[in-house]
Amino acid sequence: MRKMLQSDDSSVQQVLAFARAKIINGEYPPNTKLLPKILAEECGTSLIPVREAMRALESDGLVTFIHNRGAWISPISIDDLNDLYSVRIPLEMNAVETAVDLTSEDIKKLHDILDNADAAMNSNNKAEVVKLNKDFHFAIYSHSKSPWRLRLIETLWSHAERYQRFSLDFRKDAADREHHDIVDCLAAHDNRGAAKAMGVHLKTTVELLNESLKKSNISEVV
């Protein structure tokens, strides 16, 4: 059993982080029941923060509550993937195009994140790669000065991360080049070029994810 969590608020956040990681990396597979008692035991806490965390997971689209059947890990499908990216792509391209005030320190931070992601991938730390990928994108999006856009993108990312594990092995080199193309444009203050590069990156990702899911026989809801 894990060490007892410290406070109500921190307990909810820690249970949420724990469960999210399990869902994203596939340890809690789609269409499996999420049992509050088991989750509480795994986190070393009571049922109260677990129930709150499960409601937050529902808000993120990661968990579905079914009447008289409890909470289930939400399914994934190619249709869901394509719908998700059809919303993500224009939002994130716009966030890049409107990102302002990036300093040389900000550009260095982006390069550092990419270097760390490369090291994590080489050590097969896929959970860290997923985290750093998000850090990279949001280090850019946070400069778009639109809190509402950022919230929308954050919500979409919470669900999109479930699909990323299907692309990590074969997208490493191409994604790295695409990320560097984005940074190069931002360093040259070419936000329009950076937005275009982001669009290419996301469109290529979803195309390859479609292929990967089909090979994994996930053409239907699972």
UniProtKB/TrEMBL annotation:
UniProt domain HTH gntR-type: residue ranges: 9-76
InterPro entries according to UniProt: GntR_C (IPR011711), TF_FadR/GntR_C (IPR008920), Tscrpt_reg_HTH_GntR (IPR000524), WH-like_DNA-bd_sf (IPR036388), WH_DNA-bd_sf (IPR036390)
CDD domains, alphabetized: WHTH_GntR (cd07377)
Keyword DNA-binding applies: yes
Keyword Metal-binding: no
SMART domains xrefs: FCD, HTH_GNTR
Record keywords: DNA-binding, Transcription, Transcription regulation
GO molecular function: DNA binding; DNA-binding transcription factor activity
Name of the protein: Unannotated protein
